[in-house]
Automatic annotation (TrEMBL):
<dbReference type="InterPro" id="IPR011989">
    <property type="entry name" value="ARM-like"/>
</dbReference>
<protein>
    <submittedName>
        <fullName>Importin-alpha export receptor</fullName>
    </submittedName>
</protein>
<dbReference type="Pfam" id="PF03378">
    <property type="entry name" value="CAS_CSE1"/>
</dbReference>
<feature type="domain" description="Exportin-2 C-terminal">
    <location>
        <begin position="4"/>
        <end position="134"/>
    </location>
</feature>
<dbReference type="InterPro" id="IPR005043">
    <property type="entry name" value="XPO2_C"/>
</dbReference>
<dbReference type="GO" id="GO:0031267">
    <property type="term" value="F:small GTPase binding"/>
</dbReference>
<keyword id="KW-0675">Receptor</keyword>
């Protein structure tokens, strides 16, 4: 996990960053293996990778991409070979696919609620972990937590 998955998180395409962040958040907040002592060494690297994702630009789920899709109907009768390739590309677009994470609008909220629950279960452990995160990733998230009204014990 540390050698393959976590280093690749920073190079995740912008459209998939939200899903990757929510997957890592589920791993942090729901997986019992990361919460036991033997695997707790992975908790901090996974938390850092999630906070690193929060610092990268993301495609918001509510962005309207309909303007981009209007070009799919353009037909150039003189370039048949190009048209076939373009049609295949147009058919492979993710138009109309259902977002499985539509209930979770902001991954920061999901992480915050998970950290609050973990902090209530084991007081003092989560703030100690967050203090080990590099400040370039922790500071913006801690400021957002304070502004959103979350208290981690």
């Amino acid at each position: 996990m540390e050698g393959v998955l976590l280093p690749a998180v920073a190079s995740t395409p912008p459209k998939q960053r939200r899903v990757v962040a929510l997957g890592h958040i589920s791993l942090l907040t729901r997986a019992r293996t990361l919460q036991c002592e033997a695997e707790s060494r992975l908790y901090l690297p996974v938390l850092i990778s999630v906070l690193r994702l929060f610092t990268l630009p993301q495609l918001k789920p509510t962005e309207d991409t309909a303007g981009e899709n209007s070009e799919l109907n353009v037909t150039d009768l003189e370039e048949h070979g190009y048209q076939v390739g373009f049609s295949r590309l147009g058919a492979s677009e993710t138009i109309g696919k259902r977002d499985p994470f539509s209930a979770m609008v902001d991954p920061r909220d999901a992480l915050a609620s998970g950290l609050v629950k973990a902090g209530e279960a084991q007081p003092g452990k989560i703030p100690a972990l967050i203090s080990q995160v590099p400040s370039e990733f922790a500071t913006p998230y801690l400021q957002w937590l304070a502004a959103a009204g979350y208290q981690i014990k």
